[in-house]
Structures are given as C-alpha cells and as structure tokens.
Amino acid sequence: MHQLNLEAFRPAAISADTAEYNQRVADMMAQAPPTHSLEPQVVREARKRGGGVSGPPVYVEQAQQRTLPCRAGDIPVRVFVPAQVRGVYLHFHGGGWVLGSADGQDPRLWDLATAAEVAVISVEYRLAPEHPYPAGPDDCEAAAAWLVEHVQSEFGTDRIAVGGESAGAHLAANTLLRMRDRHGYTGFAAANLVFGVYDLGRTPSQETSEDAVVIPRPTMEWFYDHYCPDASMRRDPDLSPMYADLTGLPPARFSVGTLDPLLDDSILMAKRWTHAGNEAELRLYPGGFHGFISWPGLKLGEQANLDTIEFIRSVMGAR
To answer: pTM here?
Structure first.
C-alpha cells in the first residue's frame, strides 16, 4: 500500500479550477432545499426530470437492459458490452441505498467498458426505505453469485472485478465478504472502491461534517435512517464492513477526495485491508468533495475517472 500522501491535504494542493468549482457547488447547494428535508420519492422524481446536478439523464444506445434469473427472483441489470471483452466489471451505483439507479451513469460506464475492454454489469438493487437492509445487499450478492456461475459462458472470461461509488462501494465490499463467507468464492480480480462508506456508526470525518457540501451529516443520517432504522445494528459487520474479517480479499483501490465527509472511511478501510494481508492502494484527490467524479466539467473528476479506467485495464490485463 502507498504511504498516506500528506501533500494532498495542504491547501496549496487544491488547484485553482477545483477551488472555483467547489465554491460554485457550495453556492448552488445553499440555494436548494437539503436532501434530508425531502421525501425520497420527491428526490428521485426530480432527478428523473433533470433536476439533478448533471441535468436530464443521458442514456447510451449500447446499453442493454436485462434481468438475471436468480434464486430469489429476477434482478434487473444494465449491461455494457464492448467489442473486445477481457473481463467483467460488476458495478453497484451510489445514492445512499435510497437514491440512484443502474441507468444513472451510462456515459461513464460505457467509457469504462470501451477503454478498459470490460463488460460492465450495473445492478438495479432494491432501494430503501421501501426495501431497507438487507434487501439491497441481498440483491447484490445474488447478482454476484449468478455472474460467478455464468461469466465464462456469457462473456468468455473468468476475470471479474467489483466496484462502485459511495453506497455502491459499501455494497461492493459487502458483496466480497458475502461471496467469501456464504459461497466460498474468493476469485475476484480486484475491487474498485470509490469514496465508499464503511462505518455506519460514523467515522470522525463523518461526525464533523455538519457543513459539508453534498452530504452534510444530517443528510448522512437521513440515508442511514432509511436504510437501517435500528441504529444499534449499524456496526454489525454485514452493515459496516470496517468491522468485518477482511482476510482473503482481492487487491483494492480506494479513491476519495480530501474534502469528502467519508475521507476517514477510505483511509481506515485501506489500512485494515492491508493489515488483513491484502493489497490496497489509496488514491487521494485534493479538494474533491463527495461525488466529485459525476459533476460535469470538473477536471479533478475527469482525471479520477481516467485513473479508474487505467486501474481496471491493469487488473484485467488489457493492453
């Protein structure tokens, strides 16, 4: 694992364009009603109408809408298959287990599929509060189990990486643990874990994030209350992988911005990953706020997405 890059935390490490963009985001968020003051369905409908930060959703024609026939029922997935397939990337979207969808990031996933030469499968797991824990993790586990069984016949490869952003990174880590413990499978090639949440009991950076942009502490609590209303359960290892036995897991890349309330989650989880005998890389992005890879025109996010492509290419052996 790389040593913690202390230079990334210095104010001078934040580029002028990132600082300017961050101020625009802060001003915009100050004018909008906070997420935690709204009902989940209201937020979802607004995003469908183009009220999100990126405007109306953009769908790519190459995406395939499928269902996986799993034992517990059919699970919808969004599939992106490039001309050359060297591996499969099993993706879980973010949104605090309450928001988001498998078709909410088509351009980014199609770019990853074509540039890294991987088939991408994004899982439409069930959302809270209509379907609280453990519905979402159950769907992700079922999708992973199906893929392990069918990856060779469907895609002509046995190399699988898993990953996601925010709650999706949490679900990716949880899926690795469930596949190891419930299915005896430890053959994933890598994990790509982007500004994930790994301690639902709240790390110090979460605890002190009252004024953070995008996900201040009240919004984090809103997500937690919908996903797992019983606060006494939240540090169970199946809910907070920070507290799980992490032995026997694949190489992982942890990415996070230095202004993200989930900063401590990535730093501590990367340390625990290596302490358990696994390989881990921690990549810090100076001035990055939560979700910065999805905001249009932010150069820092564009670079982070290119870095993800390079990581997936490397673990899949693409040239």
So the answer is: 0.97
